[in-house]
Every structure is written in C-alpha cells, then in structure tokens.
Amino acid sequence: MVKVKAPGSCGELVQGTIDGKNFLITCPVNLYSIAEVVSDNRAPEQSHGVKVNKAVEKTLAYLNIKKQAFNLTVTTNLPVGKGMASSSADISAVCQAIALSNGSLLTPDEVADIALAIEPTDAVFYPGIVMFDHVNGLIRSNLGSPPSIHIAVFDVGGEVDTLGFNLRSDLNKLNKAKETQVHYALKLVTEGLKTNNAKMIGHGATISALANQSVLFKPSLESIIKISADYNAAGVNAAHSGTVIGVMFDLSSLQNSVQCIEAICKAHPEVTYLETVKLISGGLLQLEGDSNNWIECF
C-alpha cells in the first residue's frame, strides 16, 4: 500500500505573463488530496474521472509499465472549480503514488510534464514556493520558503473550468495589457520571499489580484481589500482562474482575523467564508510505513 498527498492552493500569489510567457507563483496551503494505491491482481477496472484516469495511464506509459491491476482511492478536502488546485493535487498525488507502487520515484519536473500533458497545472507539488509556467512548463524556478502567513479563504460563487479558461481567445491580449502591474507584483513577492517579509508578499499579491479584474472580475474584491486593510491584513490574493479570494494575515495581524472575517461577511453576504488555512511550502508527501508520519517525496 502506498499513500501520497499533495497540497491544494488558495489561488496564486501572482499570475499573468511576462513578455508573453505565462507564469504563476504558487500559493500552496495545508489542504490536501490523498492518493492510495493497493496492488491487487483481482481488482476490477476502475474509473475515477477523466483527469485521474489520464494521470494513471500517462504515468504507467511514462514508466513503460504494462497495464496492471490495483485499487486506487483518491480523497480530498479541496472544492472543485474554485481555483484551489484540486485537479493539480489529485493528478500529482496519483502520479507519484502509481510510481512508488512500482518501485519508482518521479521528480517534480517529471510530475509536471505528465500533469501538463493533461491540462494547465498548478505547481503545488514542487517543494517551496515556485514560479511556474502553468501552460507550457517553460518556467520552473524555486523562489524559497514562505514566512508564517494564514489565509482566510472566501468564495465569491460559481465555478471556473481551468481548461476552458486557458482556451479563451482574448486571454493573451488581456494578459499583455496588465504585464506592467504583474511585473511589479512579481518583483515584490520575489523580494518578500527572499527577505521573509509577509507584508511585501501580501502587497504584491494584492496588485496581481487587482490587475486580474480585467480578466476575471470579482465584484467584491476591492471592497474586501479595503476592509482587510482596516484590520492590518498583510494583503489579499485571488484565484486568477477561479472564484476564491484569500485575506492574508501575518503574525502581527493574525489576532485581527476573526473580526476581519466577520466584517467581510457582514458587508458581503453574497460571499461565503470557507475556512482559514496556512501558507506552506509545496511538495508531495508519502506515508511512511504503517505510521501516521508523512515524509517528503523529494
């Protein structure tokens, strides 16, 4: 039996294009998808949805392993279609679980290549916080580990299909128009990660979230940013191709989080508060033996 878990995200810290090249900066959080593989020659044919089925097929093909019988279970506490990397977490956990059950270990780049062959992907399976080309995989850069930041997650409603969103005919033009703001946001977040400065990271994330209004408008975003500033929040980030908004609190403002959440819910009854999560370093984790101890895969 092999168990692998992958973190989800609260949107992205930054997303857009630089000189026409797609990228995002990951925002992994402590919510997970878990893939469990148990070898069983008597196991019947299983179906877990198109994306997970493709992850299984492509991983076996990549490892040059003929189709085999096993039981696969995928569990998650990540909502679908909200911009919380539910598909990326499912796919990456499944890829590594299949590999480990066959005596192999995929690198983050190998997981990325398999995932990108299925759909545009978040890079939450890379250790740390990374800058990643989520469409073509041309950019893969580790930016370091995050400082202590908690994120109150709000859902503005609806669902966004990742594949459909990235096929929009106007997307390149809209991304090009906001490159100046995105470049500044990238600079702030990168420097914030280097210097362990949560406020700088939050500032950059807020700029990127606002710049993305021209691409995927969230009616409550500007008001939520203003309310959050009243409670000294570090900043506000967003799912650039999803429906969630994250209010970021560093250690100096965490004590204000409950009142801030209440104020946002009062001002915006149409917005749903989901939960408060923690920004973490990304990466896949494997269950060690029969214990409850999860160890890093990479």
The CATH topology assignment is Ribosomal Protein S5, domain 2
Identify low-pLDDT runs.
none
Fraction in helix: 25-40%
Indicate the mean pLDDT: 96
- The ordered string of helix (H) and strand (E) elements is EEHEHHEEEHHHHHEEHEEE
Helix/strand/pairing category: alpha+beta
Number of domains: 1
Report on the biggest sheet: 7 strands, antiparallel
Sum up the overall morphology in one term: globular
CATH architecture name: 2-Layer Sandwich
- CA(first)-CA(last) distance: 19 Å
Number of helices: 9
**What is the top-level CATH class?**
Alpha Beta
Kindly provide the radius of gyration, computed on alpha-carbon positions and rounded to a whole number of angstroms: 19 Å
The total beta strand count reads 11
- How much of the polypeptide forms β-strand, as a percent range? 25-35%
Secondary-structure topology with pairs:
Blueprint: E1 2-18, E2 21-39, H1 50-62, E3 70-76, H2 86-101, H3 108-116, E4 129-132, E5 140-144, E6 150-155, H4 162-166, H5 171-177, H6 179-195, H7 198-211, H8 221-230, E7 235-238, E8 244-249, H9 257-267, E9 272-278, E10 285-287, E11 294-296
Antiparallel strand pairs: 1-2, 1-10, 2-3, 2-4, 4-5, 6-8, 6-9, 7-8, 10-11
